[in-house]
Amino acid sequence: MRLRASLVCEDVRFEVGGKLTAVGIGARIEAEPGDGPLIVPRLAFLAVVGDLRGQREVAYRHYVVPAGAHDHEPPPLSREAHDPAQDEHTFVLALAPLVLDDGGWYECVLEVESEIARLRDQRRFEVRRGGPGGSPSPTPTSPPGG
């Protein structure tokens, strides 16, 4: 099993003809302005996993944790049918809304399992509160440890 592509974005749209459009791709996500918890209206994660020919099912889980967190209990695995004639499986996973206690760096984690292999992918992104008029509020722009 091999990760062929992954990204964090604001939304993924399914177009006519089976094409996908990713909107707001980047490592910085703007939350709604205001006080209290940070609210991101929608956060999407797109991943393409390959080398799955012959597999009839994939199990996966997807979650968001603060960057570097090691004490998080992951959610249970979900199962999804896979066409054994196809080499790739595309995952489009969305959280709407995503509510966070504080801004900063987070990781979007995808874990995939098949009968023969396992894969784990982590994508870091920063959440910042939008300021008055939609301008971002000042926060650090470097991920922890990077």
Question: What does this molecule look like?
Answer:
It is a single chain. The protein has a single domain, classed as Immunoglobulins (Immunoglobulin-like, Sandwich). A hairpin with a 5-residue loop joins strand 2 and strand 3 (20-23). The protein has strands at 2-9, 11-14, 20-23, 28-31, 38-40, 43-50, 57-66, 78-81, 89-95, 98-100, 104-113, 118-129. It is globular. The strands form four sheets. The protein has a five-stranded mixed β-sheet, with no helix packed on it. It contains no helices and twelve strands.
Features:
146 residues, Immunoglobulin-like, 5-stranded mixed sheet, 3-stranded antiparallel sheet
CATH class: Mainly Beta
Beta-strand share of residues: over 45%
What is the radius of gyration computed over CA atoms, rounded to a whole number of angstroms?
17 Å
Q: What's the shape? A: globular
Unreliable residue runs: 133-140
CATH superfamily: Immunoglobulins
CATH fold group: Immunoglobulin-like
Cα distance spanning the termini: 28 Å
Order of secondary-structure elements: EEEEEEEEEEEE
Main beta sheet, described?
A: 5 strands, mixed
Average pLDDT over all residues:
89
Our count of domains comes out at: 1
- Identify the CATH architecture: Sandwich
What's the helix count?
A: 0
SS elements, strand count: 12
Structural class: mainly beta
Helix amount: under 10%
Biggest sheet strand order reads: 4-12-11-7-8
